[in-house]
Design brief:
This protein is mostly beta strands. The chain contains no helices and 8 strands. The chain has one domain. The chain has a 3-stranded antiparallel β-sheet with strand order 2-1-8, with no helix packed on it.
């Protein structure tokens, strides 16, 4: 199960699912043109992707 955790306060979010196919979203990253990475959660069936959740003013991360 994918679990996003805030490194600042320890808050975590468990399973997030796609609204179209109900598959669990998987963790990934995309590289921006400036070379920095952005954490994302994406549908394994290709229905889309979202930026990872935020907490305490920063991206929550996921250990895979």
């Amino acid at each position: 199960m994918t679990k996003y955790t805030c490194e600042e306060c320890g808050m975590s979010i468990g399973s997030m699912t796609c609204g179209q196919c109900d598959q669990e979203l998987t963790h990934s990253t995309i590289v921006k043109p400036d070379g920095s990475n952005v954490h994302i959660a994406e549908c394994p069936e290709g229905h889309g992707k979202i930026k990872s959740p935020m907490c305490c003013g920063q991206d929550m991360t996921c250990k895979v």
